[in-house]
Amino acid sequence: MSLNEVYITRTSHYFPNQPVGNEEMEEYLGYINGKPSKSRRIVLRNNGITNRYYALEKGGKVTHTNAQLTAEAIKELFKDDPEGFKSVDVLACGTSSPDQIMPSHAVMVHGWLPELGKLEVVSPSGVCCAGMHALKYAYMAVKTGDAQHAIATGSERFSASLVAHQFEDEVHKLEELEQNPYISFDKEFLRWMLSDGASAFLLSNKPNPEGLSLKVEWIEGLSYADDMEPCMYCGAEKLEDGTLKSYLEFTHEELGEKSIMSIKQDVKLLSPNIVPLGGRPLPELFERRGLNPDDITWYCPHMSSNFFRDKIYEEHLKLGHHIPYEKWFVNLSYVGNVGAASVYLMVDELLHSGKLKKGDKIFLLVPESSRFSYMYALLTVV
């Protein structure tokens, strides 16, 4: 069977509302126990984020669902070509923050887009790599000829799980027990890291007749879950032995008292592992794919925090892969950490920046701390 070449022919993004600066965050997310956070400034100083987006009004009222954000990004793909909706065969939507456990995220997105008509819909689950899994599914559908045109998306709406009232039951329980009425750093840490937004790619078996397209050379992934315990999790509690206790095993009261449905991250496990594990497969991958680091024109590494910037750079040096900072294209500081959408947002901004020329090679690296998974991809500008 002959395989098609696959091209990203359009990209788009959608952010809810206006950007939120560092000093405004608690006006949207609220004050836990009515008090300003003690950790906010420390986390912000390290993560280097100055603006992010929330699908909230001040005071915490929700303005958009995740599915709505994603649908708006998809509409942007076709704002100048409304008939283009009819040619799409596959919709693949990745997120780590779906609006509900079921129905799946992608079918909820489809529900906001009757213009698409009947088509195949896929919802990869996971965390930051979920967007790349959606991209790979769309890529393979076009590659094999099952689809001529496919949409892949990455999106997040973290803010709804970060608002203060999500933690009030836990704080009140701590007060009843006469303990320090502050939630753990593993829970509060992520309140100052995450952002809402969505981005979409249109994939085709032919490049644009005019203008630039991005040829997808390859996409690969790797999981370390066979020997790494969970690091980032939601809907569970981490036990002393490193295993997770499911939300299904807690009483209704315990779900609130322990903030079981909030996002948590084991920061002690994160820092020593997230960068080295991501670098470990690169020498073999580059050799097998015939990729020389010098051939990379633009490097788009997804980073949850600017704290990891120099660590990633130094890891490449250790591996003999020098990728100078002038080749990096990262927008973390002014869009925030948008999880599964982050790499999409980098590619989208880069494609519309005027910086690209035909022949440029764009290397993507997406880490996921949930149980340490990684996705890698190479795009060529054509």
TrEMBL record:
NCBIfam families xrefs: PRK06816.1
Top-rank taxon, per record: Bacteria
InterPro entries referenced in this protein's UniProt entry, alphabetically: ACP_syn_III_C, Thiolase-like
Listed Pfam families: ACP_syn_III_C (PF08541)
Organism: Mycovorax composti
SUPFAM superfamilies per record: Thiolase-like
GO molecular function: beta-ketoacyl-acyl-carrier-protein synthase III activity
CDD domains: init_cond_enzymes
Protein known as: 3-oxoacyl-[acyl-carrier-protein] synthase 3
Enzyme class: transferase
Domain Beta-ketoacyl-[acyl-carrier-protein] synthase III C-terminal: 287-365
Gene: fabH_1
EC number(s) given by UniProt: 2.3.1.180
Keyword entries, A-Z: Acyltransferase, Transferase
